[in-house]
Amino acid sequence: MDTFIFLFIILVASILQTSTGFGFSILATPFLLLIFKPTEAIQINIILSLVISCALITKVRKDIDFGILKRFMLGSVAGLPLGIMIFLLVDLTKLKVGISLTILALTIMLMLKFHINQSKSKDMVVGGLSGSLTSSIGMPGPPLLLYFSGTDTPKEKLRGTTLAFYLYIYFMSLIIQIIFAGTTKTIWISSGVALPLVFLGLYVGQLLFKRINQNLFRKFTYLILLFTGVYMLIESWRL
């Protein structure tokens, strides 16, 4: 049963990632934590997310904002080591509660039409937050998604820029995770088993992306964030 649930999670998350540009880690990580140990769940998520980013990067290159991407990367330099320290020192339950409350609070602000003015300094801060979340729990998406949604960024630019950043941040986070937390055969075998579902999800997600308009895209974004925040909070209280 766990194998079926695992493969279903990977398929749905892959479709979401390809069609929206952000959804794999946000959807997959909370559920993978129910099946695997924290280190295994996070590294499986990072490995598969890296595969997705590699597979899609050539298709979205024209939509990348390289100025923002550069500032995200610079900001992440401080966030990456902070994230692995959090992973190694902070209780996972407390970490999940904090993240879920942050996601819920910021999502509600966006639903109430809270607007964020983009700036170079904010790009750096968002990159740092995303870096710390990637090396700690393998989930870089929330800061990027909340920031881009608050600045009314078109979905093409959102998907292209986030995927390009993911290619860098997942690679760096995987190296940091392996060095400081170690790795196991389970992680690499499970990732290999999931690859066919990832590629199927890529195909289906590309078809959906062409049919999602900007308004529907924004509403879907809020729904995913609310679901993730509420789910992580409930599961944290149950532990």
UniProtKB/TrEMBL annotation:
Annotated organism of origin: Metabacillus herbersteinensis
Name of one Pfam family that matches: TauE
Primary site of residence: membrane
UniProt record similarity statement: Belongs to the 4-toluene sulfonate uptake permease (TSUP) (TC 2.A.102) family.
Keyword Chaperone: no
Keywords: Cell membrane, Membrane, Transmembrane, Transmembrane helix, Transport
InterPro entries: TM_pro_TauE-like (IPR002781), TSUP (IPR052017)
Transmembrane segments: 7-36, 42-60, 72-90, 96-114, 163-181, 187-209, 216-234
Cell membrane is among the record's keywords: yes
Taxonomic lineage of the native organism: Bacteria, Bacillati, Bacillota, Bacilli, Bacillales
Membrane topology value: Multi-pass membrane protein
Protein name: Probable membrane transporter protein
Places the protein is found: Cell membrane
